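Lecture 7 notes: from sequence to structure.
We start with the chain below.
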Amino acid sequence: MKKINNKLPSGNYNIFIGKNILSKLTKEIEHLNLHKNVLFIIDRNVNKYYYKYIFDNIKAKFNKSDSIIINSNELEKRIASAEKIYSQLIQKKYGRDTLLIAIGGGIVGDIAGFVAATYMRGIQYVQIPTTLLAAVDSSVGGKTGVNFGDAKNIVGCFYQPKLVLIDTHFFKTLNQSEIICGMGEVVKYAFLSDVNFYNYLNLNLNKILKLEPNVIEKVIYESIKFKCSVVMQDEREDGLRKILNLGHTFAHALEIAQKYKIKHGQAVIVGIVCSLFLSNRIGYINKENLNLYLKFLNIFKSKIKLKNLSTDEMYKIMLKDKKNRNGKIKFVLPIEIGKIFIDAECSVSLIIDSISESIKFFVNK
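Predicted structure tokens for the same chain:
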């Protein structure tokens, strides 16, 4: 088992990573003196496959506990889903001395975190991510939120969990699509962090896709360690933390344009390819390095399908991105491994050209 302490201005919390470690939750609830009035928010599929595993391992003596089962998809990531949880909390007379425990992927964690941040102006919550994507990304860092209209994560706030527990036992039922989804954020860290991590991923991509235990645990640990190092310096995305949005301006627009038929992490991989082409067009990345980085991403070409994608539609959606300033789209662009340019601006023609080149990359397999 590995442990990372995320030290933030708003408070510290521990992140535990390992296989079959869910039973540690009970000890940590006691150790941290967390509240004993507990509402579990559980993904429907996780509840289907792991109900017995969850409640055989969580044996704390709660004052009271209830569960809400929710569907985990982007169309459900709405204020209406949060309202259902608020209603349950009120009907069951849960007060400020409540602990929410989110067990599921990033959508479950985002909704639960948003509810925890806003119910009675803030209650405790714990993240137990059950997907690779949630483990390396959304469970850590304190971003919570829901979608509204055709804008992704537009309503939300920063609110940190009391604990993150990543039990890789949950990963055994992940299909290839979900693993690829998680790899979107892992690949992002490869470009953001350093050459050592980039080279490790390059050598072990096939082992990661097969979820080989030692490799996947190291990848999760290194990814989270890097993200924590960024969030510790910039908790609320005023500066450095913006680098974590690499590929995301394109990705969020792609998800909406494809009506969420493409998963977030897959969209991030496409978004990173778009960013590489755009960075090359601006002059940050030379042709040789562009080809080298695209070769690194070749393994994903046959695993991501883009259908009837309009570059103009994507651009229009990007104009609504929450990271924009003064009506201008802001990009995070790679220069080389570990070197990133923040808040880049460029012409409409270059943006559309980069999207077009990325589409060709994934279509010409």
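Points to note: The chain is about 45% helix and 20% strand. The first helix runs from residue 24 to 31.
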